[in-house]
Amino acid sequence: MAQLLTCAAQGNEHYTGVAARETAQALRTLAQAARGVAACTVERQSAAAMLDSASHVMEGSAMLIHEAHQALVSPGDAESQQRLAQVAKAVSHSLNNCVNCLPGQKDVDMALRSIGEASKKLLVENLPPCSKSFQEAQTELNHTAAELNHSAGEVVHSSRGTSSQLAVASGKFSQDFDEFLDAGIEMAGHTQSKDDQIQVIGNLKNISMASSKLLLAAKSLSVDPGAANAKNLLAAAARAVTESINQLITLCTQQAPGQKECDNALRELEAVRGMLDNPNEPVSDLSYFDCIESVMENSKVLGESMAGISQHCKTGDVPAFGECVGVASKALCGLTEAAGQASYLVGVSDPNSQSGHQGLVDPIQFAKANQAIQMACQSLVDPASSPSQVLSAATIVAKHTSALCNACRLASSKTANPVARRHFVQSAKEVANTTANLVKTIKALDGDFSDENRERCRVATTPLIEAVENLSTFASNPEFASIPAQISNEGSAAQEPILRSAQSMLDSSTQLLETARSLVINPKDPPTWSILAGHSRTVSDSIKSLITAIRDKAPGQRECDHSIDSINKCIRDIEQASLAAVGQSLPCRDDISLEAVQEQVTSAVQEIGHLIEPISTAARGEAAQLGHKVTQLASYFEPLIVAAVGLASKHMDHQQQMNILDQTKTLAESSLQMLYAAKEGGGNPKASHTHDAIAEAAQLMKEAVDDIMVTLNEAASEGGMVGEFFSYNDTYTDSVSQMTKSVTCQEELGGLASQVTVDYSQLAQQGRLAAATAEPEEVGLQIKTRVQELGHGCIYLVQKAGALQMSPTDSFTKRELIECARAVTEKVSMVLSALQAGNKGTQACITAASSVSGIIADLDTTIMFASAGTLNAENEESFADHRENILKTAKALVEDTKLLVAGAASSQEKLAQAAQSSAKTITQLTDVVKLGAASMGSEDPETQVVLINAVRDVAKALAELIGATKCAAGKAADDPSMYQLKSAAKVMVTNVTSLLKTVKAVEDEATRGTRALEATIEFIKQELTVFQSKDTPEKCTTPEEFIRMTKGITVATAKAVAAGNSGQQEDVIATANLSRKAISDMLVTCKQAAYHQEVAEDVRNKALLYGLECTTGYIDLLEHVLLVLQKPTAEHRQQLAVLSKKVASSVTELIQTAEAMKGSEWVDPEDPTVIAETELLGAAASIEAAAKKLEQLKPRAKPKQADESLDFEEQILEAAKSIAAATSALVKSASAAQRELVAQGKVGSIPANAVDDGQWSQGLISAARMVAAATSNLCEAANASVQGHASEEKLISSAKQVAASTAQLLVACKVKADQDSEAMRRLQSAGNAVKRASDNLVKAAQKAAFDKAEDDSVVVKTKFVGGIAQIIAAQEEMLRKERELEEARKKLAHIRQQQYKFLPSELREDHS
């Protein structure tokens, strides 16, 4: 609202609209919250008061927005501005009333008023007469002081609890304060002198002020428990109360020796104990090593004071005893403060923790100043105020208003929002002017304390209070608030030893002081001395363990060790790769392109380069950041090594391989040296002896980064590709790439020289823009200088090209031209290096977008597992265990999103931080959501998918937001890319809100289906927005794929109607998941198919139109299902059928459009006739391949003999070749005959009798396959025969098989063919050709076998016994051959019988 007022007053329409929208959103949230509070309030009167106050806020806000509109319409109109201010004041008052109606707040306000009323007793001139003796008054004061101190602790404790606890504690505190004040006034009456009395009253006023501050801090914390530093401010306020009480007790009481000092010390220790309860916030500004020094110094002081306490107890030196107790108390408080700060630094330095961010302003500082100014102004206008009190109040006002003006000045210099900047400046002027007017009236009042001057003073305080209140309201804007640190579980575990030792130290010190208090009165009690010695030992041991714990847990040391081990491993890996490269055995990576792997290396090296300065700074003086930075550095090295080895493997040049690997190793070694130096420095600013080593290591790292970047840029330039380094400079880098191509080519020099000139002129224009927009200015100057140097290099290059044209054969000129080209290439790489220095944020956006893309792919895989019912938890846990973690991480992601959007308008450094933080947070969010989904168990996979889909939507929206931020970085506020950024941010917030709703509803069986359906409708609307965009898809798809995707919509529509009729939440969830996938797939394939290059413009427009109609119709259907779930009436259920028919009609139109995309040649890939033709063509291709193989065969070489059978093997090959050619022609003819059947209508393109035509197609396919297989066997037999590895019988058998399968193919084609057709005649002719070729081959083989038999001469043995044996052996061989022949015939018959069973019916009948 404060922004709305400022923007309207300044006439800024754009920011006024933004502020009005944000105000409306905040009011909606406020209304819901007010209803929730009222519903939970037991007292009806309080609930009614809450709703009434919220109603007044709404009415006033509506009037405020109306007046803001009027102020915009008539800018400069004083009357409208005055009305606007009055309405704003009324709304502010209503808001305060609304907050005060919250449970607990009203009670705190009552307590504050009670303290204020009670404190008026201190303003009287004469104190009331004493009613008690001095001893009674002293006892009463001590008792009420102890009660008040205890009540203060209860307020601190209850502010972290429930509102009822805070109400009780604040009421008790105000009651105890009233009693303590009465006791203090009674004690003041016993003072001997007027000065002592004034001092006592002053101390009581200090206690009153401290008590008010304590209640205000408790009130702030209860309203916003997550506010930065609120808990520490509350603890500090409680300590202030304790210290004020101690000062009064010290002044007023006269106790037994040493008792007062011990009581004060015990109260101080009780007050500082709260520092150890909240280690998530900084306690002080001490660094870690300052904490160590503080612990050492205070432990030394404590040791001396403890020895003094013991010594002075023995000697009875009471004053010295009291002094030692005071010193010990201060040392223990210092030790506790140092331990609390050290534990915070240890926790926040853990790599898994997130450090807090300082806000633009500190709202608590503004609130405290506002309270102090209001109380001072009350004192000014109080008629009972003395001149000294008036001057004191004036001093307080001046001090706090000056602090507010300084804070406004700093805030205006830091903010990038022009409206906020102007508002801070204007508010500071108002505060300063009203303060000056008040000071004038105070001076007049100091000169004359008249009623008239007091009235003027009272009138002057009103505008000051209003100005300060308005400023405090504006400063409380969450946009300006700090972000507290988030300490991980690992960080909390690391804090534990420090906190445990500090608590043990406080406990034992408290017991030691209590023992010493009794011992100083009775120093002759031996058992008490032994107890004191025991407590003293416990204190010493706990301090020793505290020092050890702080030293052992030094931030960054453990992370440095882990990072050193990680980089050492990387160095070993790179050494292994270098050895492989030396041995020429480095395996090439085929899974990634050269451009992609080069981009990976470049990105990793740039990120490492960006970390050099932060690590150096952290090592010298920021211990809390050291662990984060070194872990981040080590995380880049593993991908760098993998990418560098892959890049080296892509290069054929051995020298280039070794350069890349050596420079990568050098970078790793320099980083290792940096880590050793950083570990030694440890973030200690006083360890100056390590700073030189850190600076030297940083310089070595920078040189290594520069070297490898030059090598990479040279490699990119030689390949003619220069990466896109940041978004607004794409044209510039393209010019560099084109110019590099030109200078590396030595042909057509005249044309290339002209091209270089054109390219450089474009490059210079883009370079001027790049230099003007670069951050910081030094980078812009560097870009400008290097572009100029590149221009000089291009001049020399063109001059040498001209000289070479004059004398083409001059080798010296050629060499000079090559040198100039190399110099230009180097200068190009230097320009690119300068560009990269200014695009840190954009590079981080690219890296983050890549990470988010990987997360989305991982979530898709998880959805597959969940859908399959295999996503189970690793241990026994419920979803409730993860719910809070999911909500907390989602809230952190929203904060990162705000920073990301703001980063587009800020520096590259902030943009880089925001992008890295958002990528880290979305990774954590997906992890906790996956754990939550797994914890639900695989029995409910649909709900698991709903939950994972919700976080996938968030990740997808974040990826688009990062892309929009990258495009909008550095652009003006009215640039179109800024509007795209706002749109992407809105989608991101919508999806995160949807995730939160899903998480809250996922365990509610009555509503989770409804929630899933709402999320699906929102998802489909977002997908429809992408579908309607003008962006051309990156790839195209086929109409067949498009038609296949439309089938899913039909199934999903039926499911949606069924879910609407049944009303079951399980059915609704299944419908939501199915609808999401079906519509998304359809929209993607529709756009990809429509933008195919062969699709006509009118068909494309129709496809996009029908896709839009189908999606909108489906959204209407889902929204109606939602309505049916809420109002399940028969009329509503009947409407489901109407809407489903509308969707079905749209799907039919989509399918018809898809058929039109292919024109008249479109076929159904599942049509049996199409399958038949495809198989025939495949068989023909197979036969042609076998024929080509035969063409390459030659007979084996053998000695020439005077023999007529010399050309037998040539005959075999020629015959086999002719068979292969004939069968190829046969199958092609069969394909043509089949097409003729379709044309004649004997076989339908979409068969009427699918079974009949399908059987015929199967017969044709099997016959064609048999021809192809037989021909292949024939070729193998011919090959084996000419090589001498097979018999002529195998060749004969193969040829006969070809003839038989050809006959089957002819039969299959004749079943439905026209015998007189041209195609059938060609088919018959081709079949006869195959038969003739087969017969020729059989005859040739049989003749060869017969000739071979004739050549076999038998030598008959002449001896009788030998002759008988020869006859027996021949008969034995004959019988064996006859038996083998019979077995072979049976085997053949069996094979034919088995094959016959699988033949189609038509072939069996015709064949028989």
Tell me about this structure.
With 1408 residues, the protein is mostly helical. It has 44 helices and no strands. The longest helix has 38 residues. It is elongated, with a radius of gyration of 46 Å. The N and C termini lie far apart (97 Å).
Which descriptors would you attach to this protein?
ILWEQ_dom, 44 helices, mainly alpha, Vinculin-bd_dom
Tally the helices: 44
Radius of gyration: 46 Å
| Tally of DSSP β-strands | 0
The structural class is: mainly alpha
Helix content: over 70%
Beta-sheet strand percentage? under 5%
- Termini Cα gap: 97 Å
Largest sheet: none
Low-pLDDT parts are 717-746, 1196-1206, 1245-1255
Outline:
elongated
| Integer average pLDDT | 78
In short:
This protein has 1408 residues and is mainly alpha-helical.
Question: What layout of secondary structure does this protein have?
Answer:
Elements: H1 2-10, H2 13-40, H3 44-73, H4 78-100, H5 105-119, H6 134-158, H7 163-189, H8 194-223, H9 230-252, H10 259-272, H11 288-315, H12 318-349, H13 363-381, H14 387-414, H15 418-447, H16 451-475, H17 489-521, H18 526-552, H19 557-582, H20 594-621, H21 623-650, H22 654-681, H23 691-718, H24 730-743, H25 749-773, H26 777-806, H27 811-837, H28 840-867, H29 880-903, H30 908-935, H31 941-968, H32 976-1001, H33 1008-1028, H34 1039-1062, H35 1065-1090, H36 1097-1126, H37 1130-1158, H38 1168-1191, H39 1208-1240, H40 1250-1283, H41 1288-1310, H42 1318-1351, H43 1360-1397, H44 1401-1407
Helix pairs in contact: 1-2, 1-3, 1-15, 2-3, 3-4, 5-7, 5-8, 6-7, 6-8, 6-9, 7-8, 8-9, 9-10, 10-12, 10-17, 11-12, 11-17, 11-18, 12-17, 12-21, 13-14, 13-16, 14-15, 15-16, 17-18, 19-21, 19-22, 20-21, 20-22, 20-23, 20-28, 21-22, 22-23, 23-27, 24-25, 24-27, 25-26, 26-27, 28-30, 28-31, ...
